Amino acid sequence: MRGAGLPRRSDPGVRPPAVLHARRLGIDTSGEHVAYLRADCAVCRSEGFGTRARIALRCGARDLVATVNVVLSALLEEGEVGLSETAWAALGVLPGQAVELAHADSPHSLAAVRAKLLGARLGAQAAAAIVGDICAGRYADIDTAAFIAACAGRRMDLAEATGLTRAMSAAGQQLHWNRPVVVDKHCVGGLPGNRTTLLVVPIVAACGLLIPKTSSRAITSPAGSADVMETLAPVALDLAMMKAVVEREGGCIAWGGAVSLSPADDRLIRVERPLGLDSEGLLVASVLSKKIAAGASHVLIDIPVGPTAKVRSAQAAARLAARLAGVGAALGLSVATLASDGAQPVGRGIGPALEARDVLAVLQGDPAAPADLRQRALLLAAMVLEMGGKAGPGQGLALAESVLAGGAAWRKFQAICAAQGGMRTPPQARYTEVLAAAHGGRVLAIDNGRVAQLAKLAGAPAAPAAGLELHVRLGSAVDAGQALLTVHAESPGELAYAIAYAQSQAQLVRIGRPGSPGAGRSARI
Amino acid sequence: MRGAGLPRRSDPGVRPPAVLHARRLGIDTSGEHVAYLRADCAVCRSEGFGTRARIALRCGARDLVATVNVVLSALLEEGEVGLSETAWAALGVLPGQAVELAHADSPHSLAAVRAKLLGARLGAQAAAAIVGDICAGRYADIDTAAFIAACAGRRMDLAEATGLTRAMSAAGQQLHWNRPVVVDKHCVGGLPGNRTTLLVVPIVAACGLLIPKTSSRAITSPAGSADVMETLAPVALDLAMMKAVVEREGGCIAWGGAVSLSPADDRLIRVERPLGLDSEGLLVASVLSKKIAAGASHVLIDIPVGPTAKVRSAQAAARLAARLAGVGAALGLSVATLASDGAQPVGRGIGPALEARDVLAVLQGDPAAPADLRQRALLLAAMVLEMGGKAGPGQGLALAESVLAGGAAWRKFQAICAAQGGMRTPPQARYTEVLAAAHGGRVLAIDNGRVAQLAKLAGAPAAPAAGLELHVRLGSAVDAGQALLTVHAESPGELAYAIAYAQSQAQLVRIGRPGSPGAGRSARI
């Protein structure tokens, strides 16, 4: 009897160490750490592990928390613990290496998630604890889903968003530059084809500003800037390489996921994407934490506004702009925003390689290059040049124009690609199919969401050549049978899915019949 | 070119049917349907499936939606699709049988979950759609987590809770009895050891009322009534057997999960449990949907109130009681509630077998039987007897007493156990350890949550003999070294975990030193 010196009714003895041998099962669980345990293994029995239990795994200096899946078959040998791909990588084990297992409590920071769901505010310390637990892989996917739900919509105030942004920016690696001015740009997305990053970076860098740009892969869209850039050059730079590229060329277009700037963001996005749940607070923290970690002093944020864009009204854009500026100010980051026209997709291509071709056309001064993409990029570059002190107020546009038209931006882009590992040619899809107008008339509306969905069904962004080309713009006059868009796919199955979807969506491209301008009669294509 | 008769630039041809052969992988994913696909399989490539994709699987007349895990190893042969245990069972396939695969969109009802998270009300139709999708296995665990988060705390009003309750009760099987009065009872839980169901059912049934009781297994507690009953008799009755037992004996104590009454509830609980997130609306819908589906006309609900119970204040209990009565009234169910003393655990044992022994002691008239458990059960039985018209107002307690003291309840309990498949003896744990008071004094507080946690760490409810015996009650005078509780475990590892936890929790049992009554000085045991 403990504490009293009386004899115990039984003695548990010394607990045997819970050790199993690592087995890589090769199962990609999309990021969640999963440990597979035999139902009959001695460790499982004596430790009381069951499916959905959380267990701590340790091997050498590395540890993580995993969700248990119990294996009832002969998938594992006796004495083995199976690991999912991310758990295998995070633990850094070799096949057969000994792994120690122990009970893991539910992370303490989940109490703050529950409290936030029940209406409490999210304090700065709680935010830091949550971010720390997420980065350490202690959140199961359902825990992360609950946190995202707790932050959904506009449920975070300025102080909460600031605390979360600070915690996220501090959680990973951070870049420091010996320059008073380091610029950056970002687009909150929702507008297919809006690939201005690949133009703004070379224009701005050609003018001598430092712009260490990291981009994300697609979250819910058919292509992120990193996906597009990857069809032109390697983007998975490590921090040292990214630093070297920026120091040599003044700019880069790297994949943020590879450099571990704000690593919590990537883990959140992994669950946000399939949930399809937006959060203003998470959006602000996602954007600004990466900029702060990248060492930026001045950031320009493009907020496309339109009836089918991510941001639907000027009011919503103004609110988001104020929130971004407010959080930025609280964290010493100068944030400017631009509410841009988000009524229709930008450029011609939607999908990684197709968007890359639009970018190349603009850089190379091709007269057939999409004028809207060119104009948007010039405007953003102009604002960045003025923010960064390279042009006086109102002088930025002329400078940006001259750098683009004179070929300096194109040369700089090639130099950046070379520095990132070598320029390459975007792939071409093997399967394409044209969709035509069922009747003539004028294009009244193009639905950004449905266009994005169509490109995704065609295979973008996982299939880089997949997507679509839009052959019309708002206001275009079309004849019956005229090509509206071309779907590109890398497999027949994906092409068939995309075509079936396009034919079921009357609102994809809305064509008004001649004689009834603006009547909005939908035309199935 | 479709719709225009122009030649296509390429022809996708006829899409090959996406068919793979079923392989049971024997992986228990805790209910989520998971389909394992080889990364290099032709179907995977041509259909564009990747990890976290949702795919529809069909085999004969059965279908389901599963989350994809991509397999990068040789776990699967070419042409195979691996299935998790629940997916295997739900699809009802044989090894090697052909399974058709197709893209599955995110379920439409998720839009209502998102809207609810963003502040919209949950309409009755939306609730029905969500419940339907959950029952059909179309929600991934993260979707279910988001729905639970959307309903967290008090975020559902009366109409929302009513709509959800109706949808849940209508979603599964339903029982109908040819009797105007069918009674039931329920406890909202949070009080370890409060195992009155196993006493109320035989008392009430012995008096001639119909009480078709289904109980749940533990959600976040060390034992549910189904877990306790299972140590005494089989509880996994199908609907026909449950009906037969009730028609013969007037009552049963069956596991609700086996009869598919309100099946959405079990799927919600599977995610609620590890999330540890409470929702008033989900609680009301969970309780009442099962009662309605079981055909009850009158239900008594026990709401234990105490500083460490699930319901912490009289105000919260009154609110919950009003919500339960309101939803019941809207759905034609007469609901009475009893706010009971929830200051400390009930009875002596905590854990399935240990609680079963307390129940047996009460039924058998053992003078050492826990008086508090006996008294609570009598009070509840009395109210049910009065609600059901077997006793006039104020007469129920005497009737209940006589039935219990006279042995009729014990005979009825044995008859019910026999009808359910045969009575058995609760198991005895192999490992036990006594924890003693570090100093003498009076017991000032017993923490329900910590006591429950201790029993769970000892292995309850998965290990039915595990848990603990409490040797003291609030107000007990103890000497230094006197036994406070005995931990029971089925494995040394679990015993060690539980003991380590108990020693770290000064608040588990609080003992005031003599001479400072009520001072609340905590005593580590």
From TrEMBL, chains A, B:
BP-aspect Gene Ontology terms: pyrimidine nucleobase metabolic process; pyrimidine nucleoside metabolic process
Among SUPFAM superfamilies, the record links this protein to:
Nucleoside phosphorylase/phosphoribosyltransferase catalytic domain, Nucleoside phosphorylase/phosphoribosyltransferase N-terminal domain, Pyrimidine nucleoside phosphorylase C-terminal domain
Pyrimidine nucleoside phosphorylase C-terminal domain residues: 442-509
Q: By its UniProt entry, which Pfam families does this protein fall under?
A: Glycos_trans_3N, Glycos_transf_3, PYNP_C
Q: What is its EC number?
A: 2.4.2.4
Substrates-to-products reaction catalysed: thymidine + phosphate = 2-deoxy-alpha-D-ribose 1-phosphate + thymine
Q: Which GO terms describe its cellular component?
A: cytosol
What keywords would UniProt list here?
Glycosyltransferase, Transferase
Major enzyme class: transferase
Q: Record's InterPro entries?
A: Glycosyl_Trfase_fam3, Glycosyl_Trfase_fam3_N_dom, Glycosyl_Trfase_fam3_N_dom_sf, Nuc_phospho_transferase, PYNP-like_C_sf, PYNP_C, Thym_Pase_Put, Thymidine/AMP_Pase
Query: Which terms does the record give in the GO molecular function aspect?
Result: 1,4-alpha-oligoglucan phosphorylase activity; thymidine phosphorylase activity
* Family per record: Belongs to the thymidine/pyrimidine-nucleoside phosphorylase family. Type 2 subfamily.
Protein name, entry field:
Putative thymidine phosphorylase
The organism of origin for this protein: Massilia atriviolacea
